[in-house]
Structure formats: C-alpha cells, structure tokens
User: Fold this.
Amino acid sequence: MTRTAPSQDIDESDLVVTHPKDHAAGVKAVAVSMQRAVEQMGTVRTAQTLPRLNQRHGFDCPGCAWPETPGHRKPAEFCENGAKAVAEEATLRTVTPEFFAAHSVAELAGKTDFWLGRQGRLTHPMVLRPGASHYTPIGWDEAYRVIADELRALPTPDQAVFYTSGRTSNEAAFLYQLMIRSFGTNNMPDCSNMCHESSGSALSESIGIGKGSVTVPDLEFADLILIAGQNPGTNHPRMLSTLEAAKGNGAKIIAINPLPEAGLLRFKDPQKIGGVVGRGVDIADEFLQIRLGGDMALFRGLGRLLLEADDAAPGTVVDRAFVDAHCAGFDEYERAARAVDFDTVLDATGLTMTQLRETAEALIRSERTIACWAMGLTQQTHGVATIQELTNLLLMRGMIGKPGAGLCPVRGHSNVQGDRTMGIWEKMPDAFLDSLDREFGITSPRKHGLDTVDAIRAMRDGEATVFVAMGGNFLRATPDTAATEDALRRCRLTVQVSTKLNRSHVVTGETALILPTLGRTDKDIQAGGKQVVSVEDSMSMVHLSRGNLTPVSEHLRSEVAIVCDLARELFGAGHSVPWAALSADYDRIRDAISRVVPGCENYNERVRRPDGFQLPHPPRDRREFPTHTGKANFAAGELRWVPAPPGRLILQTMRSHDQYNTTIYGLDDRYRGVKGGRRVIFVSAADLVELGLIDGARVDVVSEWTAADGTVEERRVHDFRVVEYSTPKGNAAAYYPETNPLIPLDHVAAKSNTPVSKAVVVRLEPVGSN
Ligand SMILES: Nc1nc2c(c(=O)[nH]1)N[C@H]1C(S)=C(S)[C@@H](COP(=O)(O)OP(=O)(O)OC[C@H]3O[C@@H](n4cnc5c(=O)[nH]c(N)nc54)[C@H](O)[C@@H]3O)O[C@H]1N2
Ligand SMILES: Nc1nc2c(c(=O)[nH]1)N[C@H]1C(S)=C(S)[C@@H](COP(=O)(O)OP(=O)(O)OC[C@H]3O[C@@H](n4cnc5c(=O)[nH]c(N)nc54)[C@H](O)[C@@H]3O)O[C@H]1N2
Ligand SMILES: [Mo]
Assistant:
C-alpha cells in the first residue's frame, strides 16, 4: 500500500503566533505522536513500530542519542519526537521513478525541505546524468561502476570526500571507514564536526577522552544538575523523565539558557496520571537567562566565587586530595579565575551578582554535581574553552569518577557517538589505524583528512571533486548555504545514500546518484539471513537494534551491503578485505570490530546481553586520565564572550519542536507558540523598542562578517516575521536550516572548527526599506 503525499508546500502567510507554553509534553504530546504516526504509516505499521521502539528486542529510536533506562524499561520508552522520527522513516509514502519523471530537478530545487521530505521514502537507485533535467533509474551494479570509475580516475584519493551523518549503524560505519581508508584517504567529514566536536576537543584535552562520564543512574543519583545550552523538552524529551526522577530524589536543577524553554521549566509526563491531569513537575529550580556566548564568563566567575569560599573555609570547597592526586595546571587556572573581574562577568552574561552567588552556593553545597550541555555551548567561537571552563568547576570539586557526578555532553544523532568509536573521523589516532591495517592487510593513510568546513573549502576550490554521503543532508546542514551549493556544483560526481529526498539531491555535481537504503525500522535480510545492527548511545552503552518492517521497496539495500558492493567494484576480486562475507553475516563484521576497536572485545556476545554493554571510560571507571600529562588538565584559556555591536543583534540558529535537523516534520513549534510557518526571528521587547520595530514586522535578516582580509561580507535571508519573545537584550533566535545562508563558512570555533551556529552578528532591515 502506498500513500500520496500532500502536494502543498509551506505558505508563510498561514503563520500564526500565540503565547509560548511554560511546560513540555502532557496529553497533547500523546495525541500528536499518534496522529503523525497514523498519518504516515497507517495503523498496522504504527502498531508494528511504536511498541517496539527502544525495547530490548526492538529497534533503537532513530531520533536522539538519549539512553534507555537500564533494567526497568517502560512499556512506552519513547517520546513525541521519537514517534515523529519513526513516522518519518516508516512512512508508506514513496518517491518512485515516476515521481522523478514527473518533477525536474529544477522544479524540485524550488521546493522547501519540508515538501521534499514529505514525499516519502526513496524506492530506486536514480542517476542524474550530465546535462540532464531529470533523474532516471539506474541499476545498482551500474551505479557502483559509475562511482568506482570516478574514484579510480582521481589523481589522488584525497580528491574524494566521504561524509557521514550520525544514524549509520556501527557495522556500516566500521565498513565505510575501512573502504575509505583502503581507498587511501582520511577525508571523512561527519555531522559531528558541526555538533559535539567542541565537546570532543575540550574533553580530550581536559580528561583524555572525548565522551561523557555519566550514566542514567548517575543522573538519578545526582543532587545538582546544570543544564547549559540545551533544549531537552524538544531535542531529548526522554531526558525529562530522568530529570523528574532525579528531582524526586531531591536533586536541584539549574538551567542556563537565553530562552525559557518549555521543557526546562515544567514537565508533564504523559505516562503518569499526574502528568496528564496535574500541573506537572517544575524541572528547573533556577533559570539563568544568559546572554548568547556568555557561558565561559559565567563558569569562570563561579570559579572565582568557589576559590573565595575556599579561602574563607579552607579545604571545604576545593577537593584538594583530588586536585593534588589527579590534576595538572590548577595553579595557572587559579590565577586566571581569581583575576576575573565581576563587572565583565555580569556584562558578558547579563546575570546579576545574586544569581552568581546563589549558583556558587548550590555548587558548594552539592556532593554530587553533573553538568549537561549541548549545542548552546558547542557552536560558539570559544566553545572548546567554554566546555573546558565548565570542566574546571567539576574538577575543582572532585566531581568526576564517582557515582552521581560528572560530565554529560548530550549527543544529537542516535549513533553519532558510535560512528566515531568505529573510526569515522578525519584524524583517527595511529593506534587505531595500526590495528585496522593488521586485521585487514591494508595500509591506511596516516595524513589527517578534511573535516566538514575544510571539505567545503576543498570542493569550492576544485581540490576535491567526488563527494559521497552516507546519509544526512550536507547541503542544508552546513553553514553558508550559497558556498556549499557552489562547492557541490563544482564536483564531477555527488552520491547520496539516503532514505528520504532532501535538497542535497537537487544541488549536485555534474553526475549525481541517489542510492536508496534501509532505515533503522526496516527488516534487513542478507545472504546469511536476517541481520541486526548495533549502536552506541550518549552514555557509551552499546546495544542491538532490530528493524522488523517490510521495506517499502524491494530495491532498497542496507548501508552495509552498499559499502561492500561498492568496495568489491572499486577494489576488484582478490582484495584483502573479505567484503562479500562481511555483508553476508554482520556477526563477522562485529568479530572484526572486536579485534580492532578498543573496548569492543567479545563484541558479539556482549552486545546480545539484555542492555548491551558499556564501553570503557578511564576517568569514569578509575579516575585515570589518559591525557598528555597523564592527569586531568585544568584549562586557563583567554576569557571570551560575544558583545552585540551597536544596532546589531547576535543571532542563534536552533531547532523548532517539529523538525529533526534539516527534516521538517511539521509546522508547529508548539512550545514557542509558532504555527503554520518557519520564517520567524525571535527578538526581545527591549530590542524592538530600540530598533523601532514591532511584533509582526517583516524584516530581511542580514549577517555581517569581517573576512580575513578586512572586507565586510553581507549575507541575507528575506522576509522574516519578527516575534517578540523572552530572550536577553542584544540576542535573537531563528530556525535552522532556513538561516544557514547567514553563517559565514569561516565563522568557526577555535580548535574544533565547528561552524558557529549560535552567534552570528545580524542587522534587521524592514522589508521595503530600501
Ligand atoms: N526532535 C528533535 N530531536 C533532536 C534533534 C532535532 O532536530 N529534533 N536534533 C538532534 C541533534 S543532531 C542534536 S545535536 C541535538 C541538539 O539539541 P539542542 O542543543 O538542545 O538543540 P538546539 O535547538 O540547537 O538548541 C540549543 C539550545 O541552546 C540554547 N543556547 C543557544 N546559545 C546558547 C548559549 O550561548 N549559551 C547557552 N547557555 N545556551 C544557548 C538555545 O536557546 C537552545 O535552548 O538534538 C538531537 N535531537
Ligand atoms: N545553523 C545550524 N546548522 C546546523 C545546526 C544548528 O544547530 N544550526 N546543527 C548541526 C548539527 S548538531 C548536526 S548533527 C547537523 C545534521 O546534519 P545531517 O546529519 O547531515 O542532517 P539530517 O537533517 O539529520 O539528515 C537528514 C537526512 O538523512 C537521511 N537519512 C535519515 N535516516 C537515514 C538512514 O538511516 N540512513 C541513511 N543513509 N540516510 C538517512 C535522509 O535522507 C534525511 O533527508 O546539522 C548541523 N547544522
Ligand atoms: Mo547534532
């Protein structure tokens, strides 16, 4: 059975703005989950999927990377946005060769991401030949030949770029990086470069491993939880249940955010009777409405207050035993923190001295502190330094490597952390490459490859000409949309392994291929029978995921099969990697993983345990810090923040409640009260007065960027509706990806090279003013 997609696209004149909500979830969330599920999948598939979501014998949610609660799983271990993610993937709507015959690429390029995604699952491999106006069907074997021919024709393997999004399973990711390294390049940009790269860079330097150090039971046991730069009500809704449990055990929660996000304020658990009829639970005890980019100053100011409190009662605040035994660089940090000027901190953060003192008090009283964060900290110029400054606070208090305490970067894509563990990284350490080479008899290149921003530069400059994407929507996820469009158009070949149609299929190289693939919910049958895959969540738990739906088309291939078939075409028979055997039986891939990837020993057995297994984490497990000093390193980077120039605003680009990254599920950002459209910009009442604008005004948003050579570049998006909203003066917010054209390619975080999506200098020009 197939379903036809609604044909209308977004009509921004339908936009309605109402009051924002002060709570997340509740019965409305259940109603929306069911409605979206049934609309896309029908009742049968809805019944086949939702009850199996995140269950031990089910499949891992293709939404976020929040872990399941070990042991006691609830009958419904999913949230509204998880249900939407499943509906989006398991939809019965299809994009067939007839669809491509009826719509030219030029026509599709005029549609929004919303319209494209709604058309349904891709059913056939398709090719866009040089100069052609339409995609036409192509056989799988011919598609592999086209790719292999182009790759082999390159003067050097480094002229190819292989992107990965974070839904790819461990098995597919492991083989994909093996194929790429066998081919001879480390050009492996991934979505993580735009996401938690700053966390990885910061934590690797500070504690010796780029992953978080806590588990769900730790969160439930903590007595203080900081949530900085994260909107869990929308992006990690199941986290709210964990936070509610923590509160039940007496935890205090402090939210640090420019916006009063609904999920941070109050949560009504739809699975509890009190959550349906009652007023719900207040999640945050304190809400620090911080200025964009002010977090480093906040954390350093708190550091000074902690040190002063320790002066007053020596040995009660700073955990000297921990610092002496396990840390390096404390003296330098202490000097920097003591030197910080509180006027600067208040100016950078927009907070009051009372708020600072109360937060410091909470930290001092706490015996078990956890710090959680997401994109609000990572996508800043000084994101790495900010996360290190937060880490300093926890180190000073000895809050790592003990129950109920630690660092919690909350990951995005459901397997983004696993993909990295499996080797998807442009600068994997030599030890990993050595063991990969030993296992497979290949010689991996040691030269580091291109990350996302550098890959765009290379394609723009003609230095890379073949682009292959394992999932994702590179064109829309990346900054500087016009620059990325140019970059992709200059390629000889662009290849997208995808489940759904998106804009990366319609802005292409000279030749373009769409290779349709199975998703997490689909049954995966190979020569060796039915296969399962595995993933790693945000807390380093590795477990199985078993899809059970009949794929919407018999032409879909698994990501594993696509990689292996392409590799066989590329390397020919007799290659030292047994590609055919690996794709026939994924246990063989896991056996190889167990020999190559540290911590994955005995993978097949351990991943089949009820909750899977946890990867090692030396700081968490043994207070061991595998850094270059052998200790946890305090950092004392130069203090940075983001003042708004006169007459300008600092813009953050973020997610609505009705999207998954570039996939727009619907047009209802319910918690923020925006419905029917997406081209809005949230501005404070104080700025509206100062700028002479009113709620409802129409403006062009223009970003201003001073390039390296001193010229001021402008980028513009047209006709946005101004929404008066609670955000600090000088700050604004708008949705991604509509505002990605505003973000300069060179506007990146120090060290992590992550695009700065949360601090873009803009001015607002009333429409028709010039
Ligand atoms: N439903 C749904 N779930 C998702 C996703 C999705 O799109 N939809 N995306 C997934 C992915 S890949 C990721 S990475 C995560 C993203 O999860 P989030 O990081 O929660 O996503 P954003 O919408 O970017 O929200 C950033 C939050 O940080 C705040 N913020 C912005 N700048 C600053 C700052 O300078 N300081 C502070 N303290 N706060 C700031 C914003 O107000 C906002 O609340 O979610 C994952 N889960
Ligand atoms: N301005 C701005 N830009 C941002 C961000 C921001 O906050 N602001 N956030 C950044 C972040 S955190 C991230 S993670 C990136 C996200 O970047 P990406 O991961 O590249 O983008 P997605 O929108 O998640 O990708 C959606 C596409 O993935 C494909 N897909 C879905 N499931 C599967 C699957 O199982 N297999 C395969 N092969 N394909 C699949 C579908 O075709 C779908 O169209 O965007 C970044 N860009
Ligand atoms: Mo992300």
